[in-house]
Amino acid sequence: MYINCRVCGGNVQEFVDLGRQTMANGFLRPEDVEREYFFRLAVGMCELCTMVQLLEEVPQHLRYHDAYRYHASGSESHRKHFAQNARRFMESELTGPDPFIVEIGCNDGVMLSTIAQAGVRHLGVEPAGNVAELAKAKGVQVLSEFFDLATATEIRAEHGRADVIFGANTICHIADIESLLLGVDVLLGPDGVFVFEEPYLGTIVGRTAFDQIYDEHIFYFTVRSVQAMADRFGLELVDVERIPLHGGEIRYTLARPSKRTPTPAVGDLLAAERTRGLAEPETFERFGHDVERVRGDLVTLLREIRAEGRRVVGYGAPGKCTTVTNYCEIGPDLVPFICDSTPSKQGHLVSGSHIPVRPPEAFAHDYPDFALLFAWNHAEEIMTKEKAFRDAGGKWILYVPDVHIIG
């Protein structure tokens, strides 16, 4: 099966199918189970521009709403990272007489709150009303809309052009990438930069991190595909930087053509991608086989533990856990509940698999024999915090890059 590429119109050829899925952050109340939205979670690569993307998409108004469950400030590592981002912008790009920064998808203000505290002119664009209110409570100026050409035009008319347009784990969520980039063109100042941080396809493939594939992630970027996208919409990729967030992301910096000299990192990562075959069908065929192997190994392990009369509970309920539990057909029979520190998820069910989400106290109240770590990208932070679990003989189960146990 193929569709037309959302970036260039070329054929998108399917390479992996993760089956019937539902919304990753659509944590349900028990009474809402009958109204779940399902779709086929399949991914393909454009034969022309090499952009990897979902074949089907969930309408954005169903994904982002007033009961959106993801709060970016929930992790200490996230708070540190985005505070550092804010300081970096203020030291480099926001140094003029009246600088202005716009963040697309500001969530709960994890980055812009530092900007606001410094008195720098800013605006967050956040369609999910509940997290937008959390950002406003931190002193962040927020426009509760989706970012597109029309919104960007309104912002420019009221506030002028932006020195920085920023997005973190947001740009890959926006299916109408044409309207977004036309909006960036309208809003960005002549010497400004468009900076975004997103999951890296090289990490997903290299670590068999198939749980990074879910409804919110429409696009799966590489340096090559971002460069092609930037060229198509009159921008230039001038810098790339690896960052550790979510197991390994890339920070991309785009500017207007000839305004900045591309750094050597751009060419270096392009060469590395060619060596790794990140635009070759054979690479994705191997990835598909690796995903199937991980599924088989994980389900076999969980069934063996159950047969031995030992207990497993889940730890962390990021959107990724929806992909894993549904693709692997893991339900409450294998994992009775998942503990998560986000209050808005507690008392709800993971979409599709219907595993209950409970507060962290449920984990410590009666330690299980094993904890299946869905929030594996925060493994170090979590394992340090839960040292008592390991001291009591508990063991962690991880499935990235393969299924293994840490005692």
Automatic annotation (TrEMBL):
InterPro entries: Methyltransf_Zn-bd_dom_put (IPR013630), Methyltransf_Zn-bd_dom_put_sf (IPR038576), MeTrfase_14 (IPR013691), SAM-dependent_MTases_sf (IPR029063). SUPFAM superfamilies: S-adenosyl-L-methionine-dependent methyltransferases. The lineage of its organism: Bacteria, Bacillati, Actinomycetota, Actinomycetes, Catenulisporales. This is Methyltransferase domain-containing protein. GO terms for biological process: methylation. It comes from Actinospica durhamensis. Keywords: Methyltransferase, Transferase. Residues 244-401 form the C-methyltransferase domain. One of its GO terms (molecular function) is methyltransferase activity. The keyword Repeat does not apply. The keyword Disulfide bond does not apply. Residues 5-60 form the Methyltransferase putative zinc binding domain. It comes from the Bacteria. Pfam families: Methyltransf_13, Methyltransf_14, Methyltransf_23.
